[in-house]
Each structure stands twice: as structure tokens, then as C-alpha cells.
Design a protein that fits this description.
Layout (H helix, E strand, L loop, with lengths): L34 H15 L15 H8 L5 H19 L1
Helix pairs in contact: 1-2
């Protein structure tokens, strides 16, 4: 868009090759764990699967991550919910070892 201030230096391009994100650090929290663990899980899911530009887009002031996930879970497409389900199964399998 020629009228955009960063038109000459920035561009948005769709990836040609698919990539798989690899999360580094601690494992993703369990959704069926303690309240604190469930809250961490809800935060991770929201960050990965809900569009946002600032943290305020993910949850309201004073709202827990779990409450925010409950409020927004219907906005997550079915394909992404399948991915979330598979992430949970993978966590359960790792814990069963």
C-alpha cells in the first residue's frame, strides 16, 4: 500500500515453505494439572492460537488466563483445537513414560 509510512522498507509475505515451531525451555504446562499449571497452559494456548498485537488483547485487566481462555475458546478454529488436543495428548504421553 503506497500510502503506508513503511511502504518503502517493509513487506508482508506469505511463507512458501511450511514451518513447525519448536518451543524452547520448559515443557508446556498440563491442562489437567493444578490451578497454577492450568493457568500457565491457558496463557500458552492463548499466545499461540489467538491473534494479538499487545498482551492486553489476550485478557482483560484483572482476569485470569483460565477465565480469558474460557471466554475466547470459541474463537479458536476447529483445526487449531485439534492441534491443542494433540499437544495435550503428547504431554500426557511424556508424563506416562
Amino acid at each position: 500500500m503506497p500510502t503506508h509510512p513503511d511502504y518503502a522498507t517493509h513487506l508482508v509475505r506469505k511463507r512458501v515453505l511450511w514451518v513447525v515451531p519448536v518451543m524452547l525451555g520448559k515443557r508446556i504446562a498440563r491442562h489437567d494439572g493444578s490451578d497454577e499449571e492450568h493457568d500457565n497452559w491457558a496463557r500458552t494456548v492463548l499466545v499461540l492460537f489467538v491473534p494479538w498485537r499487545s498482551p492486553a488483547d489476550l485478557r482483560n485487566v484483572g482476569e485470569s488466563w483460565t477465565a480469558s481462555y474460557t471466554r475466547q475458546q470459541t474463537c479458536i478454529p476447529q483445526q487449531h483445537r485439534s492441534i491443542i488436543f494433540n499437544m495435550n495428548v503428547l504431554n500426557e504421553c511424556r508424563d506416562a513414560r
